[in-house]
Amino acid sequence: MINEEKMVFLHRSLNRVFALPISRSTFREIQNAVLHAAHGNKDEGNAIFECLLSGEYKEFPGSKPVEKDLKKIIEEFSVKAWVAKDVFEKGEFISLITSDIVNHPNHFVFSNRIRRVDGQEIQFVTDLESTIQLLHHFLGRLQEAHKFDNAKKGLKDHQKEISALKGKIDEVLSAK
User: Which of 62, 134, 153, 163 is most buried per CB count within 10 Å?
Assistant: First the structure.
């Protein structure tokens, strides 16, 4: 049964987990902290973990005596747990891409930043030629993906976005 002592232990454990930056192992650390606080009771641990990830308190056997404590833990750590899950599942995927135009005396260049879901950032500079090279590369990846059945559905799902890109390229080509 969940008790106040377990909730205090879980709160301290989660504070320790989130004292460091979120990494791919953080999600596993959260799972371990919850299971350890539940003293190995998988049903209890899973119920607490589900509340933490959903961000919503759900009553389950034994949770009523510590409802206030559990709600506090959910409020404090739910978003962080959700981010940790996202980093665990998709840490190396792109989260954000930004570019700025930089005026160099002899070149027109872009300063580009890519941030991954796990927070890592990559910065690189491109000129017009290398930007076109990137477009060629990624268009080639889309063409390559079209050869695989499991990617065709994804391409179909994004057909509007791909058509919008085609329209933007047409605008660039027709600009005077």
Answer: 62
